[in-house]
C-alpha cells in the first residue's frame, strides 16, 4: 500500500484462523481486515495450551533435565537436550572432550538440515505452490507461466510456474524429493545423537556415541548425497521470491516489522568453550554462528553476558500470576552483576486459567523481552524464523572465518564442494533491506547450506582426531550442592535458552525459553504486541479473493515465515482428573485423498 493512495471508507471484517494448520494445533490468529483498503488493521496471537515443565522440573535430579526437556517438543527436542546440557555443564563446572563437541555439532547440523528442509519445502512452500497461487492469485500464476526462471541452469526448471508446480503437495517433484532428503538427514542425525527427536546419546559431560570410522563416513556419504539438493533449493527459492517482489509491487510490506532480531549462537568451538560464566563472552563469540542482537539494522551486542542479563519475562496478556514480589532465586550473576526479578533465573510459574479476553488476557504464551540498556526499551525481539537472525548477526559480527563459511560484515559466504551433478558452488547471503515474510523464508535454504558446509568442517576435525587416537567422548563430574547455570543455543526456529538453579543437589528452578514464546508472545504489560501480531497488523492484502472465499494466504505466509511451533511456546495444564485425548489427521484433514 503506497502512502499516496487515497483511502476508501473502511470495510472491516473479523477473521480468524484457529488452529493454524500444518503445525500442532494450538496457535490462533485473530484479525480485523479492511477489505476496502486491502490491509490488516488488527491482530491478536493466541495459544490455548499450558504444560508446566517449569513447575514439575522442580525437585528433579538435574542430570535428568536434558532427557525431560527434550519432551517439550516433538520437533526440536534435541535442541532442548543440547541446550540443557550446556546449562548443566556450567553448573557442574565440566567441559566435555573435544570429540564430543564435534559429535554434538554434527547432530545439530543434521537437525537444521532436516527440519528446515521439511518445513520450507513441505509446509511453507504449500503457500507459494501452483495450486495455492491459482486459488488466491490466478493473475500472478498466469504471469509466472510466462516468466523464465533466471537460475534454471542450476535447478532445472524453465519457468517460475514450473517451480511452483514442483512444490504442489503430495504430487510435486520437489515436494517429494524434499521428503527423501528429510529421511537422509534424519539418518545423519541418528548416527550422532542416537534417536530422533529425543536424543539417547547426549549427556552433560559428553556423549555416548561410539566414535568409529564408519560413524563419520556414513554421515559424510549421506551429506554428499543431498548437497546438490541444497544448492538447487537456494536457487529455486531465490527465483520465486525475486519474482514475487517484481510481480507484486509492494509485497515487501507483507510481514514487515522493525528490525529487532535475536540470535543466541550455535555450534560450540571445542578449542575455546569451557562453559564458565566468567568466560562466556569469549566462548560465545567463538561459536560458529555468532550470537547477537540487531536493532534497526545495527548490531547492539554479541556478548552473551549482556544478552543474558537483558532477558525479561513479561506478562500483561498472559494467563499467569506475577512473581515480582517473591524472594529471588538469584540476585547476582557469577560476575557480580545484578539479576532482574523478571529474569528466567527468578521466574515462578503459577497458571491462572480464565476466559479469553482480547482487551485483557488471551494467551498461555508469556512475553519474553530484551531490555535495551541504552534506550530502556523492552524489545519484542523476533528470530526471523531462526535463519534470518542467525545469518544477520553472524554477517554483522564478521567473526566466523572457516574453510567453508566466512562472515564479511555485510554477508555470509558459504562454499559447498562438487556434488553428484553440480560443481563446487559458493553461495552468498547478503543482508536484506527488510525483516519481512519473504526474507525470513529466503534465509532458510541459505542456512541449510550453512549447516551442510559446517558439517564438512566438523567431520574433517572429528576424523582427524579419530586417526590420531583421540577418542575420548565423556568427562566425569559431580553435582554440586548449589549452583546456577545457563545454556544458550539455537533451536531450529531461533533462540533457545535454559536457566537452571540447583539447591541441595536438586533442581530448585528451571526455565527453558525457546523461540516460540519470543515470536508468538501476546501484548505485554506495556501494550507492546508480539512479533506475529506486529508483523501481521498493517500488512497489505494481495490475495484477489473477497471476504466470502478469502483464504488469508498473505497472513498465513507471514505467520509461517516465523516457523511456528507451539509446543515449545506453552506447556500443558490439565487440572485434576481430566483426560486428554489427542487425534492426529493429515495436512489437509482426515478427508483428504
UniProtKB/TrEMBL annotation:
GO terms for molecular function: hydrogenase (acceptor) activity; nickel cation binding. Mg(2+) binds at residue 571. Keywords: Iron, Magnesium, Metal-binding, Nickel, Oxidoreductase. Its cofactor is Ni(2+); Fe cation. Fe cation binds at residues 76, 568. The keyword DNA damage does not apply. Gene3D superfamilies: Cytochrome-c3 Hydrogenase, chain B (1.10.645.10). Its EC number is 1.12.99.6. This is Hydrogenase.
